[in-house]
User: What shape does this take?
Amino acid sequence: MAPVRIAVVGAGVVGLSTAMCVSKLVPGCSITVISDKFTPDTTSDVAAGMLIPHVYADTPIPKQKQWFRETFDHLFAIASSAEAEDAGVHLVSGWQIFRSVPTEEVPFWADVVLGFRKMTEAELKKFPQHVFGHAFTTLKCESPTYLPWLEKRLKGSGVLILTRRIGDLWELHPSFDIVVNCSGLGSRQLAGDSKIFPVRGQVLRVQAPWVKHFIRDGSGLTYIYPGISNVILGGTRQKGDWNLSPDAEISRDIFSRCCALEPSLHGACDIREKVGLRPFRPGLRLQTECLAQDGRRLPVVHHYGHGSGGISVHWGTALEAASLVGECVRALRTPTSKSKL
Amino acid sequence: MRVVVIGAGVIGLSTALCIHERYHSVLPSLDVRVYSDRFTPFTNSNVAAGLCQAYLADPSNPQEVHWNQQTFDYLLSHIHSPNAANMGLALISGYNLFREDFPDPSWRDTVLGFRKLTCRELDMFPDYSYGWFNTSLIVEGRRYLPWLTERLTERGVKFFQQKVESFEEVARGGADVIINCTGVWAGALQPDPLLKPGRGQIIKVDAPWMKHFILTHDAEKGIYQSPYIIPGIQAVTLGGIFQLGNWSEVNNIQDHNTIWEGCCRLEPSLKDAKIIAELTGLRPVRPQIRLEREKLRFGSLNTEVIHNYGHGGYGLTIHWGCALEAAKLFGKILEERKLLRMPPPHL
Assistant: This one.
């Protein structure tokens, strides 16, 4: 039987991990990842990659917890192995702090991360403006290292990687039998989806190697995330803003907010600015659509709209996307669907 | 009033600073000097990883518990300042691992967020079945000693590079009070059979993804003889060597292998970490710290000595509490000699 030809559009964390899951779980396929942008120029590369979930309004909590748990367990195994440095995944402990006691004192993901507990009075003394907090250990998954590591493994599994800008999903027909659409914001055009919009995030990457803990303020607008080769300070949430150029005023504001939480940051140096556009959507789109036009058919598995939670749930949603791809492959191979063609 | 501090490790410098801070305004004639043959970066304080953690067993001198607490609180109060990085200070969390259940240490309420490890956390360390998690501090000698030196220099304290052969030579040179912070070499100035070197060797590697300390404990082997991994500000310290009675200051290849194998087994991601340096230090081991006065007489000269040595592997952990105690003893000397203009500041 000829292999089913699958095109994965998008090479951010969602595209590459989906390609990986499909290659492992769906037999008899040949996979090509097609994107105009690759690491370090994807949206994922700007994200700090902290595993702290974003809440998707349209998805039931148990499902979101499953996605997060699957991602956490997957990355935890990597962090505990000899691969940790090469994959850019490591454990980090820290605090999520609140200026007033939150309505939900224990979030749904508390038992997925490690050692989750309330902060003690002594710990809260470090943050005079805050009255409540959580202490826990989670993972950081750094795309500038993780994505090249994934790419290398994909190539090793025979997955092809192609640099090309796709303007229309039909360009992939008839070279490919199934398309997996992981194009994030690109789906505005590729899927004609007006529900997806950018939420602009500006961050600073600084050198402050004495900072070993993350600090996340309340809803997560202000944060300090120490990584392998820098500390990420953030951030902003600017809805509908497509501007990829850093704004100096915003940088000053971010720095000031972060120094208020961690005064030792005044000694930080080598400050660099980055901007990323989070692919926001009222709900994460994870579904199959059969495109039809002029007698042609093209099954598409949509897998986009992760907002600010892409890295936190990427492996769980990729497993689900691979399962949808598997269904498409089975449908293509059964005699009934062939006769329809 | 000439005070000579012998020794320029963390004990010598912090004691000098503590005394000067507390007495220079009430004793105009106060002249503090530091004599040492070794200065940063060549002291034992520079080899130590600098993790603030006292021994697991209760010390034979209960005052040491108090001095550890005072030091932790003092350093913690500086953590929030913009100066923290210059002082070599950083908050750090991590793991203490055991092969069987172990009672909580005396410092469980000194450190932050002390708790037992969960099963999932213990899964990361297959050779261990029990442990603790807590947040503590590191104070790195390589930054802290220069910082102390700067503070002392600002105050007009002078430094002299010289090897002191005897207390007598210092007394005859004009010292009224000698602060003996000579660490593991104190025996050269006055024999002390209780003081022994606890040789340690460490490997410094570049492993910036490591954000937690990991200390293992083996009841059969004893303190510091089980692998430990302590991230510092720039480099990660790997260790696990403690040899009582070994005076060698030279790196040893077998010890290197012991450290490397033990730490890579504990943390597989270290296997490719680049080695930056390898160092040997001699912990000044003593059943308890010698922190007391002694009056010495050389002919017609009466000299006061305050001994402050024998801090084992926890010198950085306990240094400020000891400095405060030494300053208290100094204050008593001043009272006895009726040298104070006004009551001494509250210590």
Summary: Chain B touches chain A at residues 79-86, 89-93, 112-113, 115, 117-118, 120-121, 124, 133, 135, 207-212, 231, 233-234, 268-269, 271-273 (CB under 8 Å). The domain at 2-337 of chain B is CATH 3.40.50.720 (Rossmann fold). Chain B has a mean pLDDT of 95.
